Amino acid sequence: MSLSPERTVSELRELLELTGDENGAQRVAWTETWERARAWLREKVAPTGAEHEIDEAGNQWFTLRGESERALLIGGHMDSVPNGGWLDGCLDVLAGVEVLRRIAEAGTPPLTVRLVDWADEEGARFGRSLFGSSAAAGSMRDQDELRERRDAEGIALPDALAEHGVDLDRALEARRQLADAAAYLELHIEQGPVLESLDLPLGVVLGTFGVERHLVTWSGQAAHAGSTPMDQRRDALAGAAKLALEIRPIATEVGDGAVCTSGSVVCRPGIVTSVVETAEQLLDQRHLDAAKLAQLLELAREASERFAREEDVEVEWERIWSIQPIPFDDRLIELADEAAREVAGASQRLPSGPLHDAAEVARAGIPTVMLFVQSLRGLSHTKLEDTKEEHLGLSVQALDRLTTKALEAFA
Amino acid sequence: MSLSPERTVSELRELLELTGDENGAQRVAWTETWERARAWLREKVAPTGAEHEIDEAGNQWFTLRGESERALLIGGHMDSVPNGGWLDGCLDVLAGVEVLRRIAEAGTPPLTVRLVDWADEEGARFGRSLFGSSAAAGSMRDQDELRERRDAEGIALPDALAEHGVDLDRALEARRQLADAAAYLELHIEQGPVLESLDLPLGVVLGTFGVERHLVTWSGQAAHAGSTPMDQRRDALAGAAKLALEIRPIATEVGDGAVCTSGSVVCRPGIVTSVVETAEQLLDQRHLDAAKLAQLLELAREASERFAREEDVEVEWERIWSIQPIPFDDRLIELADEAAREVAGASQRLPSGPLHDAAEVARAGIPTVMLFVQSLRGLSHTKLEDTKEEHLGLSVQALDRLTTKALEAFA
């Protein structure tokens, strides 16, 4: 077997050299640098004999015909955020290239094997992430809104896409790509601290979190910090402070990996001599289980109403965004767990906080799983993003094992 | 006796008509409108025969010679903030005018009686409050810094003052004005909710609060809201939230009117998808007793260090500003209490949160007291500032009674 994880690491470095600078990776989707990376990818895959195609949403596909039309998909994305890391997205693709090489060398696989480089996972230029995968999954429902989007220079999204051969009006035709899909596999860096804290190189992703995101506005009464006795205050910050602390026992109570974050509190008038009249608090709650996510939200709402009464202030909730949890496939989770244990001696099942292209594929009903490899210090979306070379090697091996197992299981 | 509190109310309305607009009072110090108010004041006082003088700091004095050179001072300020209320500062002066009229009519007083209209109490144009009174008290120590100050239009403070006949270099010569001062009286609106909440028209001020003002900076670790388990977070906002709540039991513990305010928390990066890395919290603590003020600060510091340990974050304190408490004169507090009770049937002793010219006079060692009259809804520095006419009338009567008592006591 010709699998060479070392080659993947060296190709990752080559790609960074080609498409990065002193501030990190610069493969923002719908730019020249991104196109350069995609052309470079084509050269790397060409020797395998895989057929090449770019679909209506800009996704780049490499297809090794198998004994069946039914296809095992392996995916990732070549695009990065500006000043990004050297692994996010492209590790997935380059590990897939290595697996494709091994399979091509071994002869005709039982299923067709397809490697996909999804277009614009990050949404860095137009603020719309998972562009290509949501088109292929058929879940892209914001085309009217996307037509109006502009980048920082004022260039409209449809114009930028057209420069790269993509017609927004036809993007959903990419749905045909999933018609024969039997299963979908994706390897990604964890982008969090769990595996590092457990001293484990590899993990298996149970699915992507459902998210409830709210702006919680507390309204009290501005009052002079010197002339207003403590018992005559209606302090909006007190409500926000209580909620910022209470979301933690609520997460513990609901359990099973629940996370809740208060990322900001903006105080008005926000001056040293006044009791806070208005506190605008951002709240983000996530869970892998829809019922438990609803419970997180309900408990936080109840607590906020109790705090509002205690503090004689008002509280209002406004939903900013939400998404249902997307569980991955049980059978593939088992196989991924086996693969990780065979390669690294241990595995860990964990949810994914960030969304990934895999979530879009899973929403489309395709059995899906992801492998995570340890991130150092949990950092990503920065040039400081890193993973030990030894762990990168194990991750390529694990993806290869998982591919073999999936080809057997779904044949 | 000719005391006419109704006249004071009608003169307050006349002044607002002359120097206000639809947004409120516009008597900002060192402006034409302010000069117009001061000229109008001179006309009002002229019939009493009091001698007029403007000192080196721009303070305007009206002197009724008595049997002794030693002087009882009554003070206030004609200047207002932009879009100010109809009472802040000028009630004090116009009530004083009414008392001066009554005394002038009654013949030669046992002590010389002087009414002072302090220059630039509010500091609205150059951000330097208590200008004239601090010069007279000799506590003005920032002349070098004041020379560099500019208003919003870029006009230097010394140039603006020179236009109104004041030479900054000579301002401290106004100290001579307090040489013969036996006592100082000032009536002011409360600018807080205490008297209204007690349903009392009048109160006696025990002194002005000492203030400790700090920027408390909490430093944790930014981390992805989705991928970072709750037990692996170092959340800077958690420290700030705990302190925002803890200052309240600390104020209760220290007691005696202690007030503590967290007026703002600025979160960085301040986005919904990240645990807060840095929280910059403003803290204002006030007490009338220096030892208790120090205790407030010490308890808050100790609590913050405990919270920093609990949350595995760092905390740093930076003092922004502080001032010692300035207690008023016990004997005058008694007399003021008697005067308020005689006029209104009840009185309430309370500290002043905001600073006043009276605090500067007290710092200079002159026995000092203030009377407060109820503010509706605690509002000031806005055109919504208001006090019931009936209460304004009582306040003029109380200042007159207090003046009589002080003339007897200090003769």
Q: How would you characterize the overall build of this protein?
A:
Two copies of one chain form a homodimer. In chain A, 38% of the residues lie in helices and 24% in strands. The first copy, chain A, is of the alpha/beta class. Chain A has two domains: 5-207 and 325-410, Aminopeptidase (3-Layer(aba) Sandwich); 210-323, 2-Layer Sandwich (Alpha-Beta Plaits). In chain A, the strands form three sheets. In chain A, strands 3, 4, 5, 6, 7, 8, 13, 14 and 15 form a nine-stranded mixed β-sheet that branches. In chain A, strands 10-11-9-12 form a four-stranded antiparallel β-sheet, with helices on one face. A two-stranded antiparallel ribbon of chain A has the order 1-2. The longest helix of chain A has 22 residues, at 290-311. The two termini of chain A are 21 Å apart. Chains A and B meet through α8, β10 and β11 of A and α8, β10 and β11 of B.
